[in-house]
Amino acid sequence: MAEVHRLDPMSRVPGNTTVYGAWERFVRGEDDLRGVRPEVAISWHRCRDKYGVDPGLTKAPIAVAEVDHTLEHDVVFAELGFRAASVAHEVSNVGGVVTVADATGRILAEWGDPATRKLAAEANLSTWFCWSEQATGTNGMGTALESHAPVVVRGAEHWCQAFHDWTCAAVAVRDVVTKEPVAVLNISCWRSEPPSAAGAWLGNAATRTQRTLRQRARDASAELVAAFHHARSRAGVALAALDPAGRVVIADDMAGVLLGVPSSTPATDPAVRWNPRLPELIKAAQYAVKQAARDPDWIGSTQVHTHLSDEPSSVTIRPVFLSGHLVGNLVSFGVAEGEQLPRGERGAPNQQGRADRIVAVRENRMVLLRLPEVAFAESEGNDVWLSTDQGRLRAASGSLDKLENDQGDAGFLRVHRQYVVNLDRIREVERGFKGELALVMDDGGNTMVPVSRRNAPAVRRALDI
């Protein structure tokens, strides 16, 4: 039998610098997080301030009976189940259990040491119970679903005190197109560490599964491109094909101008598709995906602003399927057919699911910034730098696209390929001789941020100028 490394459970050690001491203070409402890893601190903030999870919870709640997911997700569940079962013996030898859960945190299957499974059952760490952060606080499965990286949650890092004797290592598998979580793979050990190879095994399992998803996404792109060419041969309007996340796979010449993307060259690889940076269109496309999942014959229309004009254009959205699986939408400009989209799906603010903080890095610590503290973000090489009330800080996420997507509803707007600004922190707007715009920011230094010609119409609409 492999050696079992027993832990000080971390849940019974008081003091100002221990994780348990920080946990005690934080659940009382204090924000002193000395000694807590940044990713755990962020999770605790979600549990306390966003989800309101009771730290005295002793068992996970039962999962909801009806959960919508696609056949694509079933492929992931089957593959992860195979990989979990293949290492169950090794994990069992160190007293651990392996679980596979879906995107809601509902455990679908469990393998491992019988004695540990009995202990796990006392906390409802078993099939059909929910381990999302929203339901059960900081834990391996739930926190991995919120994160884009593998996570380890040890002892008192768990939000609920009843789980402080557990250590969990987990990784989520995400849809390669939408980046939404599909499933999560987890190893849990009671008062001991997972096997030393657990991290490599989890990473390998996720990588192999996402490789399958990536190939299927390429197949879906080929079907979407074929549908585009077929429709283009019959239609005399500007036409584009968008994936389920609202990114452009292919567009004709006119649609390319309207969307601000290259035309006629298909982007079949999900990693290199174009973001049109038109929130109204992206939300409309995502709404269409939900409607088409319920009714394959659904067609809808709305009006969106494009990069060519300050006036909105009519668009019609038609879903495209491959073997019953929705692969994206065809968008026709200048026509309005089918159901009118609800007004709330045309770019109105949607607070649900939006992060109310931006995470920055200072040396080896993460800084949790409230949105009003951030004046603008600037892309510089592979990094994103934030101009904040605490000075210039590097963003934890190196992607302006992610910042724009996460905070677009909160007044953050892309104004240039290198800049996203907080509209509430614009002090002045300067016009150039040829009509170009520059924004003078309220950041202590009156920094001037350029506005690209492509983004100028959106800026004028947002500022009503």
Automatic annotation (TrEMBL):
Keyword DNA-binding in record: yes
GO molecular function, one term: phosphorelay response regulator activity
Stretches that traverse the bilayer: none
HTH LytTR-type domain location: 358-465
Keyword DNA-binding appears in the UniProt entry: yes
InterPro entries documented for this protein: GAF-like_dom_sf, LytR-like, LytTR_DNA-bd_dom
Annotated keywords: DNA-binding
Pfam families: LytTR
Gene3D superfamilies: 3.30.450.40, LytTr DNA-binding domain
Identification of the protein by name: LytTr DNA-binding domain-containing protein
Organism: Saccharopolyspora dendranthemae
